[in-house]
Amino acid sequence: AESNKFQSQLRFAEQELSAAKGHEQALQEQLTKEVNESLERYQSQLKQISELE
């Protein structure tokens, strides 16, 4: 019974870890997307400024 309890806890911990990794990857992708969009806006503004000069 003790070994089953341990295996159950281990499975639960593995599932939690897997979910956390998925969440981390989703956050990383969101952050990358936001950084890229910011960079595009910045480059667009630089282009507009250089066209004004």
Overview of this structure, please?
- This protein is mostly helical.
- The chain has one domain (1-53).
- It has one helix and no strands.
- Residues 10-52 form a coiled coil.
- Keywords: Coiled coil.
Topology:
Elements: H1 2-52
Can you give me a brief rundown of this structure?
It contains one helix and no strands. It has one helix at residues 2-52.
Q: How would you describe this structure in keywords?
A:
53 residues; mainly alpha; 0% strand; coiled coil
Which value, in Å, is the CA radius of gyration?
23 Å
Mean pLDDT: 97
**Which residues sit in consecutive blocks of at least 5 with pLDDT less than 50?**
none
Count structural domains.
1
Largest sheet: none
For the secondary structure, the number of strands is 0
Strand content: under 5%
Form type? rod-shaped
Share of residues in helices: over 70%
- Assembly level: single chain
Write down the secondary-structure element order. Answer: H
Instruction: Provide a count of the helices.
Output: 1
Which structural class matches the secondary elements?
mainly alpha
Cα distance, first to last residue?
78 Å
